[in-house]
Design goal:
Strand content: 25-35%
Largest sheet: 8 strands, antiparallel
Radius of gyration: 16 Å
Oligomer: single chain
Helix content: under 10%
Length: about 170
Amino acid sequence: MAETEVSLLEHLDLSQLTCLNEAQDHTLKSIVADKKRNTGSAYLLSDADEQLLLTLPFNQTVKIRAIALQTSNVSQGPRKIRLITNRPALSFDDVEDEKAVVQEFELSEDDVREGRKIVLRFVRFQSVNNLHIFVVSNQGGEDETRIDAIDIFGMPLMGTRDVSGLKKVEDE
């Protein structure tokens, strides 16, 4: 029986979401806060240079099959991408380490214009709690990278559950 592939944005833990080098007015949270693919006017923009480091924590363990990144300004769209999984926190120094990278690929202008699904090496993304997306460069060598929408496709692992809503019970 084939497993059903769905958008995993609904399984994001927004309280743990981070993005290094994001512009203050154009954040990662602004494009994923609804837990579905962004179709509004919000977008993520890099700040000091073209690099971005997105940390997408899930509220349960997931299998990831594909990702999609879309932009309305193709020259600012992401080009070279490195994916890293299941690290509690990362800095830009950490993602320069080739051994930490689970998969690396380049997006074409059409990929980012149309928000095409990029199929990943599925065997490397079987049990993911955190997905880190490092945008190394953009299409036009611009100073800023822009992402209007992101989506992650796969499935939650059966037998795991969302524990992000649980509260600690105080002793009485």
